[in-house]
Automatic annotation (TrEMBL):
Record's signal peptide: none
Source superkingdom: Eukaryota
Name of the protein: adenylate kinase
Subunit organization: Monomer.
Keywords of this entry: Kinase, Nucleotide-binding, Transferase
PANTHER family: NUCLEOTIDE KINASE
């Protein structure tokens, strides 16, 4: 492994200590390779960091990984940039290649949470082939099941303070003054894709694309359906139960 430019002598001892403790705690954890599937707003983003820390996994969000590979100008990143510049979709092989590279990192030693991939059965098969070559497989696929109506209420009521990224929800976490950030008093905005019309088309695409994927993993006997409409704490408990 190429040594990075960071000299261990320059790393503050509390950082080293906490990393050492984390590794000791992680040493006894069983390996887990997970896929999170769910529509926008189903809570995958809330659960990923919690489950990642609990089980010492790495979180692989394919969109972020593609952007990182492009920025780092890795051979795969350069190929991906070529496709994106032409306005084409990045090929399944390329995305699987980028995942393949990522899961060899030390942080992924105990396994990973794959988020946003696979979106099609063809991608799921390619992913299986790649993992098979490494002698591992997906352990569990968590399906964040939630009614479209509940999602609409969740998402269209989201308001954001653009300066800080603070998020509010008109029903569950309203600002003290409607439409205004608690801290700065500046106006809140809605994301362009948080409107009912955009959500509807995203959900239609999600159901059409993803139903077959859910079916694919269900047939393999590794699918677990979660009640994603519950509170985040309850969903976390459900995930832990499924993984125990």
């Amino acid at each position: 492994m190429a040594s990075s430019s960071v000299d261990l002598e320059d790393v503050p001892s509390e950082s080293l200590m906490s990393e050492l403790l984390r590794r000791m705690k992680c040493a006894t954890k069983p390996e887990k390779r997970l896929i999170f599937i769910g529509p926008p707003g189903s809570g995958k983003g809330t659960q990923s960091p919690i489950i990642k820390d609990e089980y010492c996994l790495c979180h692989l969000a394919t969109g972020d990984m593609l952007r990182a590979a492009v920025a780092a100008k890795t051979p795969l990143g350069i190929k991906a940039k070529g496709a994106m510049d032409k306005g084409e979709l990045v090929s399944d092989d390329l995305v699987v290649g980028i995942i393949d590279e990522a899961i060899k990192k030390p942080s992924c030693q105990k396994g990973f949470i794959l988020d946003g991939f696979p979106r099609t059965v063809a991608q799921a098969q390619k992913l299986d082939e790649m993992l098979d070559k490494q002698g591992v497989k997906i352990d569990k696929v968590l399906d964040f099941e939630i009614d479209d109506v509940i999602l609409e209420e969740r998402i269209t009521a989201r308001w954001i303070h653009p300066g800080s990224g603070r998020t509010y929800h008109t029903k569950f976490a309203p600002p003290k003054v409607p439409g205004v950030d608690d801290v700065t008093g500046e106006p809140l905005i809605q994301r362009k894709d948080d409107t009912a019309a955009v959500l509807k088309s995203r959900l239609q695409a999600f159901h059409k694309q993803t139903e077959p994927v859910i079916d694919y993993y269900s047939k393999k006997g590794i699918l677990a359906k979660l009640h994603a409409e519950k509170s985040p704490k309850e969903v976390t408990d459900e995930v832990k139960k499924v993984l125990s």
